[in-house]
């Protein structure tokens, strides 16, 4: 079977498209998404596999932008297209991933990073205020990109209140759940899915939490026609006799590249090999391991938690200044036994311990914790030695002088 499908989708490799339709509906059911995201539903919704979360976000941003231009040209015929495009504006939180800002750069549309509340959550009232101010200034709000599971601390934006604002003000709402989407599959994480039935699009990286190898980023659209209408550019060599004759989507209109890879095959294999229950227990295992790590942190008074443990992520720091956190991380990175990265919020640096890997075990968490806490012990010992050094030197000099003096006395006596 050809791993790459090009150009005329139905003709070149129908299995590639048809299997993608099937696995995206499996996934939507597995993640308990609303029925309207399934290809099998009566409506215009459906899912597609993109290469990365960045691509999925960019597709949503571009489609929302084109839809806004179309509707604004209808309501404001006096404005030229370039005048409309010059007024477009988008929103996200200051906790969102760098790919959101990048999508704004690529789409030539400013994305305002709104301040998240103290608990790192973006809520509707902040968005509403920003939109109202911008509308008063003559701008045209296009899209809000919310995050479920921010990169820094895995915080969850308040989708319900953001959806209230977006629906009322006709703004596209996209949810980037690149990491936390895996939690949607669990009954005990129902809260995570609150409001998702009201969003226009969302994405989740199967290569992050679902044991599918890189690259595989699922994206769902409530109304795929909005993307197809925005991106449909035809040429004579792309036309074929089966066009418009079936319910099978032409995914080339749902993405940036023309050709596509057979990513559905690896999703199909993963589901067939591990089963839905196997995948759910994988996610549960990562949560349990993160809880095990969190208990280590809480039981050692030299450390503090920075944010609540969320899924497989624990954000913590050694008590003290940022320099202390940076020095501990540097030691750990130089030893190369474990890998972590730093993050910063409200001027405080912290460490992110993320459980990952195919087969992480409690013994791996113990190993990592031992490495971290013994390196903190060593760092503290070095610091206290360094702090005591000047007095030590003078103490030692005094000691040796006294010793020498008493030695020479003994020597003289014995002669
Ligand atoms: N969104 C979030 C919340 C992420 O954590 C990340 C990466 O870590 C991304 C987007 C970017 O993902 P990708 O590399 O698939 O573009």
Q: How are the secondary structure elements laid out?
A:
Layout: E1 4-5, H1 9-12, H2 14-30, E2 46-50, H3 53-75, H4 81-86, E3 88-93, H5 98-106, E4 111-114, H6 124-136, E5 140-147, H7 159-169, E6 172-176, E7 201-205, H8 206-209, E8 217-221, H9 224-231, E9 260-261, H10 264-298, E10 303-305, E11 313-318, H11 322-335, E12 341-345, E13 348-354, H12 362-414
Parallel strand pairs: 3-4, 3-5, 5-6, 6-7
Antiparallel strand pairs: 1-9, 2-8, 7-8, 10-11, 11-13, 12-13
Characterise this structure.
This protein has helices at 9-12, 14-30, 53-75, 81-86, 98-106, 124-136, 159-169, 206-209, 224-231, 264-298, 322-335, 362-414; strands at residues 4-5, 46-50, 88-93, 111-114, 140-147, 172-176, 201-205, 217-221, 260-261, 303-305, 313-318, 341-345, 348-354. The chain has a 7-stranded mixed sheet with strand order 2-8-7-6-5-3-4, sandwiched between helices. 47% of the residues lie in helices and 15% in strands. The protein starts with a strand and ends with a helix. Residues 1-7 and 410-415 have low confidence and may be disordered. Helix 7 (159-169) links the parallel strand 5 (140-147) and strand 6 (172-176). It has 12 helices and 13 strands. The chain is α/β, with parallel strands linked by helices and 415 residues long. 39% of the residues are buried. Bound molecules: pyridoxal-5'-phosphate (PLP). Its cofactor is pyridoxal 5'-phosphate. This is 3,4-dihydroxyphenylacetaldehyde synthase-like. GO terms for molecular function: aromatic-L-amino-acid decarboxylase activity; pyridoxal phosphate binding. Keywords: Lyase, Pyridoxal phosphate.
